[in-house]
Amino acid sequence: MKTTLATLAAAGLALSATAAQANHVSVPYADLDLASAAGQQALDKRIDRAARTVCGYKLEGKRTVREESDARSCFATAKARAGEQFAAAADAATLGG
Asked: Second label for 89, Cα 20 to 30 Å away, from 5, 70, 82, 96?
């Protein structure tokens, strides 16, 4: 079984004024039991934190409307992409793979 979600890819929309590159973060989960609800919730929290970090999406702080919009869009995209990998990993764990 894979031990990390290989990519939590974000389009780099609001990461910095000069960044137009994609960013990737590995989210480890080998220590979690993805066949359990608690393990899945823990992984979801890790993915959420990683997506917020890579997208520069924080709940506090001053940003322009454009920066906020870009960060929200990046976060939603990253969560959706990671969600596909999360589902596959959880299915594999549930099915004993």
From this structure: 70
